[in-house]
Design a protein that fits this description.
Blueprint: E1 2-4, E2 16-18, H1 36-45, E3 47-51, E4 56-58, E5 66-72, E6 74-80, E7 86-93, E8 97-98, H2 100-103, E9 113-116, E10 120-126, H3 127-136, H4 138-164, H5 167-180, H6 192-199, H7 203-215, E11 219-222, E12 225-228, H8 231-238
Antiparallel strand pairs: 1-12, 2-3, 3-10, 4-9, 5-8, 5-10, 6-7, 6-9, 11-12
Helix pairs in contact: 3-4, 5-8, 6-7
């Protein structure tokens, strides 16, 4: 099992509006199993946009205007500290949605930054229209609450991991998670800076941990490839047993 780490140059900005396709809503996890009338309501009110790799979609602290759904590509949700360091909260892919929480808040503001990791197509629904749909279809509104509950549990786990686990533990867990994730596009690349933002540390520390893992026989690095050689050992590290 392997993940790929490499440095990527940003492409030039490219933004365009596309004609919406009704079948695209069926790709969205949040709408999975929704009644056809709910799909129609989203289709009547939504529109489609496309962003280039590296292009920002949202800025933290700005007034929330809409909720977004990914039909293709990938986006990174992250926060920035006062000294400019970034921490990745989630990497989103086709079927995922974002900015749902502030869209449900009165005068909500974007809780994080979002930028595209690849060329990314999004479906967009205005905040006001989203709330009208939820008020009209209570069964779907309950489903949205359940989805938000799962996300809250995930974020609670992330906070616990950052507070209670060392960088060494988090790096081992990250390597195993990425190697196992079948949803990742073939050839997905991570720079050490990307890994640092995902894990909640800095690039130099990631470099030292990876060298230690390689010297201990847990991984092998060959150019841009990282192969996991001793998964049991990495699991022990991730669980704080070594």
């Amino acid at each position: 099992m392997k993940i790929i780490i490499n440095y990527i140059k940003d492409s030039q900005k490219n933004y365009k509006i596309k004609i919406i396709m009704k079948d695209d809503w069926r790709k969205i996890t949040l709408l999975a199993g929704a009644e056809n009338k709910v799909m129609i309501a989203f289709d009547e009110r939504g529109w489609q946009v496309s962003y280039a790799k590296g292009e920002p979609v949202l800025w933290e602290g700005n007034a929330c205007e809409a909720v977004y759904f990914i039909t293709s590509g990938a986006a990174e949700v992250y926060r920035t500290s006062t000294d400019g360091r970034e921490h990745t909260l989630r990497v989103l892919r086709a079927g995922d949605s974002f900015n749902l929480v502030p869209a449900l808040m009165r005068e909500g503001k974007n809780l994080s930054n979002v930028r595209c990791l690849t060329q990314t197509d999004l479906l967009v629904v205005d905040q006001t229209d989203l709330n009208l749909i939820l008020a009209r279809y209570p069964h779907f509104a309950v489903h949205v609450l359940q989805v938000l509950a799962v996300r809250l549990a995930d974020m609670t786990g992330l906070v616990g991991e950052l507070a209670l686990h060392t960088v060494r533990q988090r790096t081992a867990a990250f390597l195993m998670r990425e190697a196992d994730d079948d949803s990742i596009e073939k050839g997905k690349r991570w720079t050490q800076g990307d890994m640092a933002r995902q894990i909640g540390t800095v690039r130099d520390v990631i470099g030292r941990v990876l060298r230690e893992f390689e010297e201990s026989g847990f991984i092998r690095r060959e150019r841009s490839n990282v192969s996991l050689l001793n998964r049991e050992g990495l699991e022990r590290i991730a669980n704080g047993l070594e």
